[in-house]
Write a structure and sequence with these properties.
With about 90 residues, the protein is α+β, with helices and mostly antiparallel strands. It has two helices and four strands, in the order H-E-E-E-H-E. The protein has a four-stranded mixed sheet with strand order 1-2-3-4, with helices on one face. The longest helix is centred in the C-terminal third of the chain and has 15 residues. It is globular and about 35 Å long. The two termini are about 25 Å apart.
């Protein structure tokens, strides 16, 4: 389904990742995207952050990349006095 997403929508999503107390991480393998993760704070409880979306390329699966991305979100949440919901 994501293949059909227009570039304008991808740009909008990327801009949301740059908002205050939001995070989006992209893992690269050479020049190819191999994983992405995004987390956002809860609207009612800003000390809670939700892991909102995650994707790992088929070639990069079962190699620990997903775990690395999740751990980066957990580290970021801790540094920002937030608790991630897994």
């Amino acid at each position: 389904a994501e293949v059909a997403v227009h570039d304008v929508e991808w740009k909008r999503r990327a801009e949301r990742c740059c908002a205050e107390r939001h995070i989006g991480l992209l893992a690269m393998d050479a020049k190819l995207a191999s994983g992405i993760v995004r987390a956002t704070p809860d609207t009612e409880h800003p000390q809670i952050v939700w892991l909102e979306s995650m994707w790992v390329s088929p070639e990069s699966r079962r190699k620990g990349l997903g775990r690395l991305l999740v751990n980066e979100i957990l580290t970021w949440a801790g540094l920002n006095d937030m608790h991630a919901v897994k």
